[in-house]
Amino acid sequence: MSELAALQAEVAHLKIQLAEVTQTVDAFKMGQVDAVAQDAGVSPVLLQAAQDNLRQSEQLLRAIFDGALDAILLADDSGRYTDANPAACVLFGLTRRELLGRTLGEFATPGYSPPAEWGTFIERGHMRGSFPLLRLDGGRRDLEFTAVANILPGTHLSVLRDVTDRRRSEELRNRLATVVEWSLDAIISKTLDGTIVAWNRGAEALFGYSADEAVGQPISILLPPDGTSDETLIMERVARGESLAYHESPRRRKDGSIVDVGLVMSPIRDGSGQVVAVSTIARDLTERRQAEEALRRSEEQFRHAQKVEAVGVLAGGVAHDFNNILSIVLTYSSMLLDELGPEHPLYDDVKQIAKAGERAAELTRQLLAFSRKQMLQPQVLNLGHVVAGMEKMVRRLVPESVTLNFVTSTDLGRVFADAGQLEQTIMNLIVNARDAMPDGGTITIETVNAELDGEYAATHLGVTAGRYVMLAVTDTGVGIAPELRDRIFEPFFTTKEKGKGTGLGLSTVFGIVKQSGGHISVYSEPGTGTTFKIYLPRTDDAAEAISPSKQPPPTTGGTETVLLVEDDDQLRQVAHTILHRHGYNVLEAANGGEALLRCEEFKAKIHLLVTDVIMPRMTGKQLADRIALLRPEMKVLFMSGYTDDSIVHHGIVDAGIAFIQKPLSKGAFLQKIREVLDDASVGGAVTP
Amino acid sequence: MTRRAPQARPGGDAIQLRLYVAGDAPNSVAAIANLEAVLAEHTGPRVSLEVIDVLKDPRRGLRDGVLVTPVVVRVAPVPQRRVIGTLVDRAFVRNVLGLGEAIR
Q1: What is the rounded distance in angstroms from the CA atom of residue A214 to the CA atom of residue A196?
Q2: pLDDT grade for A37, boundaries at 50, 70 and 90
Q3: Which chain B residues contact residue A43 at CB under 8 A?
Q4: Nearest CB to B22; choose among A13, A35, A41
Q5: Percent of residues, chain A, with pLDDT higher than 70
Q6: What is the pTM of this model?
Q7: ipTM of model
Q8: I need a surface site. Which of A329, A340, A386, A593 has the fewest CB within 10 A?
Q9: Residue of B nearest to A28 (CA)
Q10: Do B84 and A35 touch (CB under 8 A)?
């Protein structure tokens, strides 16, 4: 054999050897081998069995893979998904075909950086964490993940868990827990044997125990020591599964004080429905009780206001006619007295009639004052000056045994009020103070600036917050019993013995103060004394000098022509008589129409129109307005028994209007007429 | 277990084969069938075939350096040749074992 031939044979042999090796590998690859013997010399392992095992575990793994609730994904070195289980498809909202080939980066939430770069992950080999996934359909899911790099060379595993719902329910639970924790109601949970297991802030606030102190303690620490609690009985019922709708019961605080609480107790059940604990929600009733009391009080205030209003309507209704009648009684008796002279045997009898009439007139006036229907002629006043001006009169009013204190401040604000009515108010209060101190004492009359704040206004019906001037009259007398305090301003309510008081004094005060836009309050301590405080709104206008009482004009008669308009025949007649007797030329009319007729008939000058305000068809104001067109130079004097909006607003007489209050008395009537006729400042019939 | 190919004649065998199998494992069964089919078509020199079940005689397999079944080994003439697997590629089997015309 040549060397070449030998070489060729060698190559052929090597080729065959290579083919053998290749074939061996192929056989392995194709699974054409059954068993592999082991070097250790023991019996060979059945390769087929191993393959079966492998196949089985592959099937097992596949089933796990397919059935897993978590998303399982395999990715290659570039991070592209090469396999994904059904859960992954559901999570990503894509089919398997759509999902494979994509990378996690395509599902990144904007503004959210992924836990790590892909390369870092591969390098580190594993990773866990959480991140938000933005699905291609826009849905957002919160994920927790575990990732392992190179579970096979070049294959990387990630397992993703959708925790969105869990997070949400956790959030919900946290929120609920926060609500419970911060609830102002006490929320407590206790076991069936009464051991406290949960204790919120509301419970801390209500009972004074911190959660640390209360948890683990028996619920009996909250029970009043007198053993009156029904807790045991209730617990038994709730433990049987009953829910206790609501009951009120006293409980003990940490400091030992007792607090009334409203309770709701409910059973807490476990999954099987077994009652395992009891929840208690307790609310402090103190505030509600206070609110109920406040409501009751304001309702009472309202009822009182209604009562006052009703009496006012009634009084206003009768006052008009009553004043006309009294005018007749007073003027006729006055004329009779003039006629008879003091020497006449009937003089004293007539005098009694006049006095009775005056008393009736005073009573009418008080009724109107109380019902806030009287005329007020307010001006800007310094309350301190009003009080100072009354000092002499007040001293005459109280006995020696009573000490009088006058207190005022120099910077006292001004008020807009009727001086005469204020004096009446102060007198009434001082008389009451005096009567409350039969054995003597001290009366303090104080005037001072005051502010009433919003809180005060909110708790006192009809009070507006603001700046006021306060007048306080304080005595050291017997005081007013609490149960009577709410009734003292009621008309005809009196504690004085019969005949000593009309029961209208404080009602009048109340009416005047209210009509002046003010507020009155009373503080009293039985056996110690009483303070009445009157608040009148402060005004910034400068005070007018209180004009000293004008001297009555020397002559009360005159020769001028007066047009007298009054629908009450009797009253008109007596007024006519008075005017006629004192020299006036009187034209008479029973209503507005007649008055206009007289104006047309009478060609000479008419100096004065004296008219009732309230008349049927045409009011005095309407008449005055009509006559102003015909006779602009004619002056006007209105007469009225109570307020009417045609010339007065809320009882305040319009400026520049001459006015005389009924009931008329002869002297006052004549005096007023002279005053108007002589007063250049009183305008003609043209009224503002 | 020793089997002889149907056409095997007694006396000095020109070609001596041993087939190592693992019981009735599928690949082994397939290997026996395929090898018998190859031998049935064989018209050349006399072939003796011994089939050895390593499950019954593991030491024999180890002693012969057989780590994997099924495998057919040509023990004579030297050099030894072996084909692993189900022997489904009969042309290849003939070629390697030197049973066909292609043998050089």
Answers
A1: 7
A2: low
A3: 55, 58
A4: A35
A5: 87
A6: 0.42
A7: 0.72
A8: A593
A9: B85
A10: no
